[in-house]
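Hi Y.,

Following your request, here is the sequence exactly as I used it, all 151 residues.
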Amino acid sequence: MRLVEPIRLKPVVAAVMLRGSQVLICQRRENQSFALQWEFPGGKVEPGEDFPAALTRELHEELGITAVVGPEIATVRHTYAEGLALELHFFLVREFAGEIENRIFHNVRWEERAALDAESFLEADREVVRKIRSGELGSNRGANQAILRLD
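Below is the corresponding structure, written out as tokens. Let me know if you'd prefer a different format.
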């Protein structure tokens, strides 16, 4: 009998930053894995860190801002073909202090929800992008809805 270890999911946090009808999106650099694909700002959770603290730290490191992390709006479990297994926790961010400064990305921009192209995003983000575009996530009408879970 062969025992198989369960896949360990790496916890990751991401911010869905909204400004009116726009959402902040970030493009990965050319020298990174998944080069030039779009994503939401955020990153890995350090040992002993809770999700909002991790996201606050990541947004400061990546964009130079101090964010007011709102509610969790989605959780996605995704395994890439390369074997990387993630559990992404998406949080709404509507307020922050400071000016956005691109510290690590190829490009950072505010994009209209209606113009979001899910296929240009990292695979793990695509269904969340579709739901943001349609208004199912990140809108006032969804303020009291349960967290979207995608496996």
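The beta strands are 10-19, 22-27, 38-39, 42-44, 66-79, 85-97, 107-112, 148-150.

Thanks again,
Q.
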